[in-house]
Amino acid sequence: MRLLGVDVAYALSPQAKGKVERPYRWLQDRIVRTCALEGIGEVTQARTVLREELERYNHHQVHSTTREIPGLRFGKAVAAGNSLFRPFSLPQPYTSAKDVFCLRDRRMVNAYRRISLFGHEIRIPTVPLYEDVDVHMVPNSDKGTMEIRIWWNRQPVHSVALPLQGFRVHL
Fold first, then answer.
1. Which of 2, 28, 118, 137 could bridge to 103 as Cys pair (CB 3.0-4.6 Å)?
2. pTM check: above 0.70
């Protein structure tokens, strides 16, 4: 998220923290009660209840504190330029969202102009020996592959798709 200029903003007071948590607690309680009253026990049915409650809360219900409908209030704030939301744009030098929203690692090119990644040897012929490269990994579970995008000196230098099997990610 640092690439996009997004930073964590902590609540500076208990009141500010409660202002964020209170609606979620209220919504969670309401969904649980609705599911219990309607005899809903399946997650797919509960998702429908969640969508309906979010629609009602955001676009129909007058908020008890602001006395405005949240969706309308947000629309006014955006129109007035009083919002921290901004359009998404790719930071330089990236040309694909895959290079922003991906798993990342760094590797050093060895004496054979290769890097090792989870038991796979990947040849990187254009990078000088012993240079660090940025490895961007984009999993594709539908195809069962991991797209590997290698960057060096803020330039893409290699791309390869490997079988997803064998990749381990520790968060």
1. 137
2. no
